[in-house]
Amino acid sequence: MDFTFTEEQQAAAEAAQGVFAGVAPDGVPSPALTRGAAVADDFDRALWARLADADLLSLLLDPAYGGAGLDAVALCLVLRESAKALARVPLLESCAAAAVVQAYGGPASGSAAAPKTALLTAAGRGEIVLTVASHGRTGHDPAELAVTARRDGDTWILDGVQTAVPWAHGADYTVVPAHVPAHLAARSGADRVDPDHAEPGRTILALVPRGHEGVVHAEQVSTTGERLAEVRLESARIASADVIDADGAWEWLRGLLTTGTCALALGLGENVLRMTAEYTGRREQFGFPVATFQAVAVQAADRYIDLRAMEATLWQAAWRIASGTQGALPTAGDIAVAKIWASEGVRRIVQTAQHLHGGFGADVEYPLHRYHAWAKHLELSLGPAAAHEEALGDLLAAHPLG
What we know:
Blueprint: H1 7-20, H2 45-53, H3 72-84, H4 91-104, H5 114-124, E1 130-132, E2 147-152, E3 155-166, E4 173-179, E5 203-209, E6 215-221, E7 227-239, E8 243-244, H6 249-282, E9 284-285, E10 288-289, H7 294-323, H8 331-357, H9 368-380, H10 385-398
Parallel strand pairs: 1-4
Antiparallel strand pairs: 2-3, 3-7, 4-5, 5-8, 6-7, 9-10
């Protein structure tokens, strides 16, 4: 089999390299590491406009919506480049949210498709920004269980809390997964769940506009020093036209977000190892560059092996999502393996980099501490390695390979 990237995928990566070439990785220092540092109120709008001009926000959208019609592999190639510069844009969240609306949200043609077409076309041009509430109530429980939903005529009523929602203060819409509890199926009247649209235990996706009635954003700050939001929904009414009610939509979106996070971890790790190689190559002890010392070389080699494992498992997961190929395990198995390697690998890479940089690695005038903070955030986002190891174990138990 030929696993080389297509010309279109390579072109997307090259375009991303051009856009991110001049982006400094030290835009907003972490308040935990720099005294008095302020959290940015918004993402990098100028960079967002350049991404739109390069047609990198519409990679996953069909030509009917002004997109390139590419796949998860192309998106991961672009995300990989963005992480090298610690680009402060909702690239993963907005592209993934637009993709799930395209795949699962409403009709693709006819008069009823007009709102969907308008939303996706604007999102591809960067005029509408989307994000996803994917961390649940505490960051450790399933996101789809943090908010409950019940149908009331032509609307859905949402109640619950989603924590650590990225870019929510600047996004036009937040995609919120919500759960229809089983006990609502037995109710009657306005609370009665239509079994044709919302089975007990089913997850729906609601597109919640910023500033919507019944929605409150509370301030939070991430490990990276970025502004997050705790999104509280208090009897928020969402029109049925803004709700994705389709089997598998949330699982597909969560898988794409997790795989994209692995791509970010890979790009970050690659740049950190490059920085470490450059530093140890010019830092001398006893008249020789420290990179020539065996102990340093062995540690760097181990981290290179981590990167190659992160890369191999990432492309396997992205290819499974893009192709829809069925294997011995569901696609979720490959995604879990990729996230295990991404979480463990990026943590080891930044720890080794800090160690080999010595005291210089903790200097806030040098960008390595920013990469360390971002690495910790990516390690834990959408579940640490242990959570995905448990999920992989459950999959293996349900789908024995013998």
